[in-house]
Amino acid sequence: MKVSRLGYLSFTSVDLPGWRRFGTGVIGAMDVPGTEGDVRLKIDEHPFRIRVEAGDADRLSGIGWELASRADHDALYERLNGLGLKLRDGDAAGAAKRCVADYFATEDPAGNIIEFYCERTGCGDPFRSPAGVRGFVTGEMGLGHVVVPAAGALEETHDFYRSVLGFGASDDLTIALPIEGVPPMRVLFMHADNPRHHSLALFSKPSPTGIVHLMLELEDVDEVGRCLDRVGAHGLGLMATLGRHCNDNMLSFYVNGPAGVAVEIGCEGLQLDWTRFEPTVSSVADHWGHAYRQLADGP
Length: 299
Hints:
Residues 5-119, 142-268 form the VOC domain. The protein is of the alpha+beta class and 299 residues long. The chain folds into two domains: 3-120, 2,3-Dihydroxybiphenyl 1,2-Dioxygenase, domain 1 (Roll), CATH 3.10.180; 139-289, 2,3-Dihydroxybiphenyl 1,2-Dioxygenase, domain 1 (Roll), CATH 3.10.180.10. It is built from five helices and 18 strands. A hairpin with an 8-residue loop joins strand 11 (185-191) and strand 12. It is globular and about 45 Å long. The model is unreliable at 295-299 (pLDDT under 50).
């Protein structure tokens, strides 16, 4: 029993129109009808991959992890329940909102809200980008990846994902910042049961929005370049310039999205055979580029 892939991300926001403009005009996602005025962004055959509902704060409100089968879903529920974790059972209304057959939720040791589901519903409708994007790299590898804070509970949270949820270690990155008085940043990268180098990473510092960044992968460098053009046309700032990461080979940039939520847009990420992989320990993040504009807050 292992988590298969990152399925969806849920947010609350005080600026739903801003998310809609960013999602369609910059990312190139489809704006699909939702419930209660929420914003749903579709990037493939799934009904949506990002959902934003109105709230009194801008924050990541849930990370949806997909299990391969109902049996895996039920087995994980029993395992977590047996460990004494506080579980929140999903109801029919919540399942319909998420477009899943069934789900439940809990928190990891760092307080990040995580949801587990099986059988995504409403799949199959084609993706047609309003910005002309040909497609995103999803499929068996899921939405992309997400980096969340685990300040004060980094090792405990890392152990939870590995020993309890079955994630595998990909890379342990420590970056010494060229800023006096600012301690090094540490990022622990993990993979789910699919070839993507990492679907999740834990960051050693806090984040007011509950997320450090999310990554969406495009098909090639020209698509990434066109997205970078759209960022400029919308007058948005970059958190990091174009560059290539060492650990997953991703060629990407980071744009400051709504409410300061950073979105990495990239291509050419590694796809790996985990039976032939040894986790790495790194101290250099990039082959080139990725000049971060907010070094004290991190990538």
